[in-house]
Write a structure and sequence with these properties.
Elements (H helix, E strand, L loop, with lengths): L15 E24 L9 E11 L4 E6 L5 E7 L3 E14 L4 H4 L2 H4 L12 H5 L11 H10 L6 H15 L1 E2 L10 H7 L1 E2 L1 H14 L4 E8 L16 E9 L3 E6 L4 E2 L4 E7 L8 E7 L4 E11 L17
Parallel strand pairs: 6-7
Antiparallel strand pairs: 1-4, 1-5, 1-13, 1-14, 2-5, 3-4, 8-9, 8-12, 9-10, 10-11
Helix pairs in contact: 4-7
Length: 319
């Protein structure tokens, strides 16, 4: 592994095309009379990501459903199932095309200039919102100390972000099941372990601790099996990373879990201030059931040969 801040230059990739299938199945030990759900499972249409098709299906068929766009521009789907059921399945299928990382962004004056110049002071309110701490507060003394080691005076923003990405990847252990959705950043900092959404939230707390604007991004990561092994359908998972704002309304996305800048292997679904703004699926049920089980299957399948051949990466088990 390279020393912090000394990574090799990013090599331009090629356009990738994927078929993404995300299936969530709930089973209950008693009949559910009514289920309400809201999900963020539709990839965003972006300048570097084109959504060729996307649909969300629910079984049993909902009695009521609608789609909309939230305050951050994310597509969401709402549904209400009133048919009595003991299992509920939500499946999202999309075909997306993703461009390589923008070399112009990496070579921009903002990316190569002092990080202090990327603070959003005096800019529009929506951007400033991403620089504010959450409630309850996530910026602790430990976060400030960790961020101060990275964001030294006058350091180029890109260099600092690459260093932060590498430090989190090095200092924290990826351990599936070690945290829950409700786990606080302070706990992750103390334990030095977690999964992708934890590492993204640590990165965001560090950005905000020094006055930078950062957003939480949910999506998928195309993964490759070990050499000699066949690709297992459904073995992928939801993923999460962070992005920092640059003047000119541009964002530089980075993936601490895999120690890399976000590129054509990442499929962006939604973004917000934190995980709570964009959970893949959230809902309420009415039942006498005392227990339930959730099974999640995610498959990010390359549609053409050019989309395979990427090194093994880690995605999260956050559902």
């Amino acid at each position: 592994m390279s020393a912090p801040g000394q990574h090799s230059p990013v090599v331009a990739g090629t356009v990738r095309r994927y078929r993404v299938t995300h299936t969530t199945r709930y089973t209950y030990d008693d009949v559910v009379s009514s289920s309400y759900g809201r999900c963020y499972l539709t990839p965003r249409a972006l300048s570097d990501q084109r959504v060729e098709s996307s649909q969300v299906s629910v079984d049993p068929e909902p009695d009521d459903r609608s789609t909309g766009v939230d305050v951050y521009g994310n597509s969401d789907t709402y549904f209400h199932v009133r048919t009595p059921h003991d299992a509920l399945t939500v499946t999202a299928e999309s075909v997306v095309e993703v461009d390589p990382i923008d070399q112009g962004l990496l070579l921009s004056a903002a990316a190569l200039g002092p990080w202090e110049e990327c603070r959003p002071a005096g800019t529009s309110a929506p951007v400033v919102e991403f620089a504010m701490d959450l409630y309850p507060a996530e910026i602790t003394d430990a976060v400030r100390e960790y961020a101060a080691e990275v964001f030294t005076p006058g350091r180029p923003l890109l260099e600092a972000i690459v260093d932060l990405t590498n430090r989190i990847n090095t200092d924290f252990t990826y351990r599936s099941g070690s945290t829950a959705i409700s786990t606080r950043v302070a706990t992750v900092m103390a334990r030095r372990e977690g999964v992708c959404q934890d590492f993204a939230r640590v990165a965001l707390a560090c950005l905000r601790a020094v006055g930078l604007a950062g957003r939480y991004v949910s999506g998928y990561l195309a993964t490759e099996p070990p050499p000699g092994r066949e690709r297992v359908v459904g073995a992928d998972a939801s993923h999460a990373w962070a992005a920092v704002w640059l003047p000119g309304e541009r964002w530089l996305a980075f993936d601490p879990t895999n120690d890399k800048l976000v590129d054509e292997r990442h499929v962006t679904v939604a973004w917000g201030r934190d995980y709570d703004d964009v959970p893949p699926l959230r809902g309420v049920i009415y039942t006498e059931s005392s227990s339930s089980r959730i099974e999640v299957s995610v498959d990010v399948a390359p549609i053409d040969p050019a989309a395979s051949g990427n090194p093994a990466n880690r995605a999260s088990d956050a559902h």
